[in-house]
Design brief:
By secondary structure, the chain is α/β, with parallel strands linked by helices.
């Protein structure tokens, strides 16, 4: 059928679960898509790459329950494309490896819709690698075969030539086969594979929930059942499974298996999430703060207009730096207008944000909090000096009040504001209630207050009885304690690297 001018469909492989395994091309497709049609195995983190106005449609199946049948999914893809929309069909793993992407592509051809296939990292390769199992190895095997463990149930006979497959490849990888594990093992032994052949079953590979059990063909079904291994899982059969004892790298990471909630604002959380994930943690992004421009720029604009009348400019956060300089540019001014001003910054991240503008810092307190700034200013003469403090509307009053006691004239202007975002809290509530969260992290007093407000009326303190609470500094820790939370650790330095090290150290100690 000839193609007419319609929307474009991208059949995109989302990889096996680890967000870092999403390809650059897949990310670019998600970012420009008008509609995302995604299944159960595609990591939900990827939806954050989409435009805010993009339509998101879940069509996955879980526990055998289908949101939509495959025929309905096909109709949906074509319907959206015929509206002239760019459609991203986001599928777990690779769309053409047991992903029914080929069937969807055939439907698009018949409908005359343009499409493109974006391959993904298939779980058939990635999951064994994360379990420390190379599928080929010169000393073990040079052949590997990929097999579906869940054939089309409408077929009368199997397409798998078990008599040839059983001994025809050194390594056998079965996808979607955990429910048929006993039958698979029986078939392989029936057709000549040794009962002692090593087998690994890996559930939810490449993410913090990964679990691996090993055995051999004659007992792996019993072992997997005893360990309650359920789908999704990848089965690896062959001598290469022995190498797991030596090469098991992912499950040996210091935070592997730990589920940690990150409450930091989404636009600032990437460094923290990346650091924790690198250590093997399963991070749950649950921002309790959203950073927005002020409702009015009147105060900030007036201060920028009179900038030459100030002696000091104090930044207390990266957000303050960002919004101040954004507004400076909007008003057709630049760093040359700050000539003669002395600049103070609380914390290395804030200082780095300032120096990235080509400016030097005149004062960084020894401790990264307001009280230390005041102590630093006590050593100098600031009586009568005018100080500009662009910050959040909701910030603590300690700094301006104490500086005024020293004789300074402090103008506090709202450079940005923080609000509670509209987050789906049902999943987090369920995990807290069931004791599935190992730690909740707080990076500011506001994240603590907003977190507790978001669960107002729920017995969150009871749910968190055995959940560790980590705070980036003493001010945040005090707010947590005031809210009734038991603080488990406070970072010795109020930085993300220090916070991450403290968390690793905490979990490296025996837990009561």
């Amino acid at each position: 059928m000839s193609k007419t001018i319609k929307g474009m469909v991208y059949l995109v492989g989302a990889g096996p679960g680890d967000p870092g395994l999403l390809t650059l091309k897949a990310k670019a497709c998600i970012e420009k898509g008008d509609v995302l049609i995604y299944d159960n195995l595609a990591n939900r983190v990827f939806l954050e790459y989409a435009r805010e106005d993009a339509e998101r449609i879940y069509v996955g199946k879980e526990g055998g329950k289908h949101t939509l049948s495959q025929d309905k999914i096909n109709e949906l893809i074509v319907h959206k494309a015929e509206q002239g929309l760019n459609v991203v069909r986001l599928k777990g793993g690779d769309p053409f490896i047991f992903g029914r992407g080929g069937e969807e592509a055939q439907v698009l051809v018949k409908a005359g819709v343009f499409f493109e296939v974006v391959p993904g990292v298939t779980s058939a390769i990635a999951v064994p690698a994360y379990a420390g199992i190379p599928l080929t190895h010169r000393e073990h095997t040079s052949t590997v075969a990929f097999i579906t463990g869940h054939e089309d149930p409408t077929k009368d006979t199997s397409d798998i030539a078990w008599d040839k497959l059983a001994t025809g490849a050194g390594t056998l990888v079965f996808l979607m086969g955990v429910g048929n594990l006993e039958k698979i093992a029986f078939r392989l032994m029936e057709h000549g594979r040794a009962p002692e052949t090593p087998v690994a079953v890996i559930r939810k590979g490449t993410v913090a929930e990964q679990r691996t059990v090993t055995g051999c063909l004659k007992d792996i079904s019993e072992i997997a059942e005893k360990e309650k291994i359920r789908a999704p899982a990848v089965i690896v059969v062959g001598d290469v499974v022995h190498l797991r004892k030596e090469l098991n790298w992912f499950e040996e990471k210091p935070l592997f298996g730990k589920r940690i909630i990150v409450t930091r604002a989404r636009e600032q959380a990437s460094e923290f999430l990346s650091a924790l994930s690198e250590m093997g943690a399963g991070c749950l992004e649950f921002p309790t703060i959203k950073v927005l421009p002020p409702e009015s720029f009147e105060g900030l604009d007036r201060s920028i207009h009179d900038i030459e009348t100030y002696h000091w400019l104090i930044f207390t956060s990266v957000n303050g730096v960002k919004y101040f300089f954004d507004r400076l540019e909007t008003l057709s001014r630049d760093v040359r207008d700050l000539k003669g001003l002395k600049i103070a910054a609380i914390g290395p991240a804030t200082a780095e944000a300032v120096t990235s503008k080509g400016l030097r810092i005149d004062l960084i307190p020894e401790e990264y909090r307001a009280e230390s700034v005041v102590e630093a200013f006590r050593k100098g003469d600031i009586e009568g000096k005018r100080i500009l403090l662009p910050r959040a509307r909701e910030a603590r009053e300690v700094l301006p009040e104490e500086l005024e006691k020293l004789g300074a004239v402090v103008d506090v202007v709202e450079a940005y504001r923080t609000v509670k975002p509209e987050e789906d809290k049902e999943k987090i509530m369920g995990m807290l209630r069931q004791g599935d969260i190992h730690m909740v992290t707080f990076t500011s007093s506001s994240t603590v207050s907003n977190f507790m407000d978001m669960f107002h009326g729920a017995p969150v303190l009871d749910w968190m009885e055995k959940t560790a609470v980590a705070c980036i500094g003493p001010v945040t820790a005090k707010r947590a304690q005031d809210q009734g939370l038991k603080v488990s650790l406070v970072a010795p330095e109020y930085t993300i690297p220090s916070f991450t090290r403290a968390i690793v150290d905490f979990f490296s100690q025996p837990q009561s």
